[in-house]
From TrEMBL, chains A, B:
UniProt lineage: Eukaryota, Metazoa, Chordata, Craniata, Vertebrata
CDD domains linked: NT_PAP_TUTase
Entry keyword Transmembrane: yes
InterPro entries the UniProt entry points to: MTPAP-like_central, NT_sf, PAP_assoc, RL
Name of the molecule in the record: Mitochondrial poly(A) polymerase
Organism: Ursus americanus (American black bear)
A single cellular component GO annotation: mitochondrion
Gene: MTPAP
Cofactors required: Mn(2+); Mg(2+)
Keyword terms: Magnesium, Membrane, Metal-binding, Transferase, Transmembrane, Transmembrane helix
């Protein structure tokens, strides 16, 4: 017996050790939020950003031949210095992301790299950290046929997800499984920062001290695998240097081009960077300059990483918004699981869409979940105003006249005493918003309580920093009604579910999986509505929703400034 | 008496010393060609280019307040390191060119320089070597009112030139005076290399090992003050690096954009650089992309230096052509004096023009003078074929299949034994071409003798390197006839002149000055022709000459590939 207890203790210790290793070694801040509430110090958003950026700067992207020996590949690259991390993935071909321990290794590699001679074609001789590896003698390696383990960065199919959810042990387990399947992986995050870093190299050619920062879903911990990569060119550091060093009666300034406004400066900078991406940027395709939008941007596809990218210039409020979401996501492990599930539910029922229109956005849904969690008793999440009261002098942040101050040290915020299960929270969420007085009340995470709507939009969710703006101004009454109907239906399904959960082996959808099915009740009710609204009506709605998305009507609907092309 | 002789000897020695100082100190290779035939070793073209480029890289351009104390200005800049050379000039305001002894001084200056804050306007925060100096307290310096000596870089007016020529002592003196007044000054040359270097900085942002090289009149020693600045982006060094260093079975290449042809690559590169110049390039205005021309180019005005610039990509034959002219210009002091005078004469009679058309080009005139000097007995200049026979292995140069080999060490070419005066050469030039059988013969500096014309263009001058091309294909019969008529008339005037030269004090134009006057004989004969040809006829001619300049008909007419826009 003593022996058995001893073995058991060793087993527990070992499992705990593995668990800690996963949390610590992976270096992925998100991993630590899943499952158990670990009390290891959490990093500040800015620390994570800085660390990731520094990692990315000593990382290279290599397009590899399909048949390659991983061992020989690593040996070859190690000539330039030790490698701290690497992984492979498949996109249009096989790619490797190789992170060196030192930045100098990248330069060393670049020094032995040649510009390809193209034969009949011609090459734009641009030197980046994106390489193309070739075999001098392809046959010598094919014999090995070692299959290289590739990291995945696309979300599971509906079918696969449904299976995974059916085999889960509880609704809580279902929500956590969904989060685990959809959240960005460590590799995907590395690739996102690397992509920004490669674009930064291009921009830094002209703007020496610039930074290209990812923002939005790539960094706010709510991003889903495959989501767009939003980045902005931060030129703020440039003007700040050495203004005090001048001596004597002279003042030396750089001769620069002057333009009538910041907006025109932004447009010109993005225009030239767009040209560079288009003509020189390795792997950058489909470059679109959308310079007349409220927030001018360059949209392009980074082919090798597979990311659809939006590049804007100084977008500090959006970055602050990302930081706030990151904070809320990190404060309680239930937040991200609930948000991912609600978003997945909304997408399954076409409440959200990848094209702009009168649909509810993921950002609005996230705000609704945060608001809901602030309304629990005891609250699971603190209000933004409370986070502001905790802020110290260093946290102070005013951007374009907006007070964006809140405490940034996660470790100084007391965890919630609320112990509700995810299952209960999911059901309560649907009930809460199924009965919310949208017609008179506004959702407001700053104060964490309903406010009277200051304007007549069907759905009013206050922008947390630009408080006069409604982030869901684009949502029309029929979309809101659809949301309410589906929320009520889902609440009902979950209450029914309690009574007749199928046996685990039956392979029948249940719990969350049931909610993601094309809804029975709602499909009937929607079918009824469809009979009432003919196709022409639906097309009219679509046109209206597109019209209402013209730039003049554009408000901040997803935490970054939204974008639309002008005809 | 002994004392007087002693003083006299000291005086002679001192004058000789001054003379040597001027030749050596000015560091201007051109100075040494004027006047006496000095036998100090002459630099190779490539050596001059390299030295000038290196100087330019440690030079900065500073826009200064109008009232500035030169002494304080230099003291302020010396904080960053010793200054080897500086000068001021006026353009749109007062500018200073400051050449530091070390390149590091430029970086030091940049480190204390700030990006201007614009108030209502916005700045594109680009950091170059072009600065704007401001006074913190303007009143403190205005009191000094020290007028800063400014270097001049525009040619004399016709009136001024006429005066200078009238006061000359001989026709030889007149030709040398004209050369001295029109040739590029040391300062102008420095400014040209600096401008190229500033553009290189912009291009090097993307193409690390690129060089922007001036070519044509700025470097061939035949450039006139105020002439355009031709430059090309040399990317040849980029592909050449480290191709042999790869080890093992792997070959690493930069991932680059591929395009179907070199031409498209050139267009894309120039297009982006054009955008950069337009949007970021301090002082670059009026940027035109002329990408569909035979030799795609970006034309722009560098406002601060006042240069009209043409930027092309790899244009090595044109650079070789510049080197050849530089050689011919340096071989005998009479060459440049004669070429400048003939060009000035042609311009005075509208035989040449600054706009493209059927006019004779300066390059064609230069070739005619070189050819003429090769035909003297004994020859003043060697043939290109002879320069080729003198070449050693290092001189070998094949560009795009054309043999451009010739000896590059000037000191290995024996000077001519011909002692004809410039006056005599000028007269003989007009007589020679007044009676040249243009209808059947071709001008050919490679062989230095008339050849049968291989095609029917009125004027045929063989391109020295691309020997199947006619550099004066654009010249029509009427322009050629006008040249012949004026040459004959000028020969006649010069022969008359011998008999009745006015007294030096009479202020009457004589010699070369007489030739630059609106011609008496020719104006009569031209007036006659004008009566025969009405305005409509002349307009027709103009249109034809413009038409004949469309890209398909473009041949090499001025030693660089000519350029024209497509509609």
């Amino acid at each position: 017996v003593v022996y058995k207890i001893f073995i058991y203790l060793i087993k527990i210790c070992f499992e705990f050790y593995i668990c800690v290793c996963v949390c610590v070694c992976a270096g992925n801040v998100f991993v630590s939020f899943i499952g158990s509430e670990d009390r290891t110090p959490k990093k500040k958003f800015s620390e994570v950003q800085k660390e990731r950026r520094e990692q990315a700067q000593r990382t290279v992207l290599i397009h590899c031949p399909n048949k390659i020996s991983e061992k020989k590949f690593l040996k070859y690259l190690s000539q330039h210095g030790p490698i701290s991390h690497h992984f492979f993935y498949e996109s249009f071909g096989l790619y490797a992301v190789v992170e060196f321990c030192q930045k100098e290794s990248v330069t060393s590699l670049q020094n032995v790299t040649r510009t390809p001679s193209m034969g009949t074609e011609a090459a734009i001789p641009f030197k980046s950290r994106f390489f193309n590896l070739k075999l001098k003698n392809p046959s010598s390696q094919t014999s090995e046929k070692s299959s290289i383990p590739c990291s995945n960065h696309s979300p599971p199919s509906s079918k696969k997800l449904s299976e995974l959810l059916c085999y889960a042990e509880s609704v809580d387990d279902q929500l956590n499984t969904l989060l685990k399947e959809f959240q960005l992986t460590e590799e995907d995050i590395k690739l996102r920062y690397l992509t920004c870093s490669l674009i930064e190299d291009l921009a830094a050619a002209y703007f020496q001290d610039c930074t290209v920062r990812p923002f939005g879903s790539s960094v706010n911990s709510f991003g889903k695998l495959g989501c767009d990569l939003d980045m902005f060119l931060d030129l703020d550091e440039i003007g700040k240097l050495n203004t005090s060093k001048t001596s004597g009666n002279f003042l030396m300034e750089f001769q620069v081009k002057n333009v009538p406004s910041e907006r025109i400066a932004t447009q010109k900078i993005l225009s030239v960077i767009g040209e560079c991406l288009d003509h020189f940027g390795p792997g950058c395709v489909g470059v679109q300059k959308i310079l007349n939008a409220r927030c001018p941007l360059v949209r392009f596809s980074h082919q090798a990483s597979g990311f659809q990218c939006d590049l804007t210039t100084n977008n500090r409020i959006a970055l602050k918004s990302s930081e706030l979401l990151y904070m809320y996501g990190a404060l309680d492990s239930r937040v991200r699981a609930l948000v991912f599930s609600i978003r997945c539910w909304a997408r399954a029922h076409s409440l959200t869409s990848s094209i702009p229109g009168s649909w509810i956005t993921n950002f609005s849904l996230t705000m609704m979940v945060i608001f809901f969690l602030q309304r629990r008793s005891p609250p699971i999440l603190p209000t933004l105003d409370y986070l502001k009261t905790l802020a110290d002098a260093e946290d102070k942040c005013i951007i374009e006249g907006h007070n964006c101050t809140f405490i940034r040290d996660l470790n100084r915020i007391k965890p919630s005493g609320n112990t509700e299960t995810l299952e209960s929270l999911l059901k309560e969420f649907f009930e809460y918003f199924g009965n919310f007085a949208f017609n008179k009340n506004s959702i407001n995470i700053r104060q964490g309580r309903e406010q009277n709507k200051p304007e007549c939009s069907p759905l009013h969710i206050q922008n947390p920093f630009e408080t006069s703006l409604n982030i869901s101004k684009n949502v029309n009454q029929s979309q809101l009604q659809k949301f309410v109907d589906l929320a009520r239906e889902s609440a009902w399904i979950l209450s029914q579910e309690d009574k007749d959960r199928p046996s685990p082996s039956s392979n029948q959808p249940w719990g969350l999986a049931m909610l993601l099915q094309p809804s029975v009740v709602s499909s009937v009710s929607l079918a009824k509505k469809k009979r009432r609204k003919p196709a022409s009506e639906r097309i009219k709605n679509l046109l209206e929703s597109i019209k209402s998305h013209s730039p003049e009507n554009d408000t901040d609907t997803n935490g970054k400034r939204t974008v639309s092309t002008q005809a």
